[in-house]
Design goal:
The protein has 332 residues and is α/β, with parallel strands linked by helices. 38% of the residues lie in helices and 11% in strands. The chain has 3 domains: 3-54, no CATH class; 81-145, no CATH class; 167-317, Nucleotidyltransferase, domain 5. The radius of gyration is 40 Å and the shape is elongated.
Length: 332
């Protein structure tokens, strides 16, 4: 049976005859072809019935709320007899809803709650849900124990650039298995500007070892630095070591406690050097570890650093390293 569609949207008349359509419109036309209809254009002022229906005002929800308040006198007899309103939710259901909204757990009361609410889907709006009693949160032991407190993060204090060999970071790796030479710690220093590393295997991690290392490996080779950055280990915070630094004019900077990222440059190098050393040691006896430290250190010194774009060797000496076999003529 054919039927007629009258609309004030004149473009609809030409849809079936359009040559260039989107895939969405093509699917729509294919669907409409199963119906026998005809589209006729009629201006809006002549299409009075449908035009009037399309311009109806939206029913406002606040009108319903206003009408509900007009019915409150009807609840007075019930309240005088039962001491509650007929539209009010039972107190036990209120408490269950509060608990479930807070805990969001599934237990016997959860099932009871949903069964009660499903049976009363036509019940009036439950106003107390929008103002959930905060006592549930304040008195919940699990919430008080498990909730993370709000911590204020201290603003970052970037290190200002300094000339080469003016700022060094120090750190220990260990305690390692005792080597054949009696060493079980690795003491590392890293220059912040050139990324030049110094690594020595030492028998213990005391402040005397640190002071001797700074004097022999840094001061005698690169001059007295301006700053030395370390963590808060006992071997770095002794009064004797701090007095020594103060005597030769070194500012000792301690990182934040339990925050290794404060000395991230040397922590990153520790991971790199540890991987290099593990590759050199391989399946060899672990007590011969100190024999491979210099090889792993040289590999780190000739490795391009992402921060400078150059190798530490080039940053210090101004030339690229010459490796064994670089000038050999390849045999073809």
């Amino acid at each position: 049976m054919e039927f007629i569609i009258r609309t004030d949207h004149k473009s609809l008349e030409h849809i079936p005859t359009q040559k260039h359509l989107s895939s969405r419109m093509i699917r729509l036309i294919e669907y409409l072809q199963q119906f026998n209809f005809k589209i006729e254009y009629r201006p809006g002022k002549e299409n009075i019935v449908s035009d009037a229906l399309s311009r109806l005002y939206i029913l406002q929800l606040d009108l319903i709320q206003k009408d509900q308040y007009l019915d409150w006198p009807l609840l007075i007899p019930h309240y005088l007899k039962h001491s509650d309103f007929s539209g009010d939710v039972p107190n036990e259901i209120k408490e269950l809803v509060k608990k479930e909204l807070h805990l969001f757990t599934y237990d016997e009361s959860h099932e009871l709650l949903h069964r009660k609410l499903n049976d009363e889907q036509t019940a009036p709006y439950i106003p107390f849900i929008s103002r959930l009693d905060l006592q549930w949160i304040k008195t919940c032991v699990n919430c008080q124990i498990s909730t993370c407190g709000k911590t204020t993060t201290e603003p970052l204090h970037p290190l200002t650039p300094v000339p080469p060999f003016h700022r060094w970071s120090l750190d220990f790796i260990g305690q390692l298995p005792v080597t054949s030479n009696g060493n079980r710690w690795i003491l590392i220093a890293l220059d912040h500007t050139t990324k030049w590393p110094i690594v020595r295997v030492v028998p213990n991690a005391t402040h005397e070892v640190v002071a001797k290392f700074v004097y022999q490996e840094i001061v005698l080779n690169f001059g007295c630095p301006t700053e030395i950055i370390t963590d808060r280990g006992n071997n770095f915070t002794t009064a004797m070591l701090n007095s020594y630094f103060k005597l030769i004019g070194i500012k000792h900077i301690l990182t934040s406690a339990y925050h290794p990222r404060s000395n991230g440059a040397i922590e990153r190098f520790n991971r790199l050097f540890g991987g290099m050393l593990a590759k050199y040691v391989g399946d060899n006896v672990i007590n011969q570890l100190d024999e491979y430290v210099d090889r792993a250190l040289f590999a780190c010194r000739i490795r391009q650093h992402h921060a400078t774009g150059k190798t530490p060797f080039y940053m210090v000496y101004g030339v690229e390293e010459k490796l064994p076999g670089d000038e050999l003529i390849p045999i073809i």
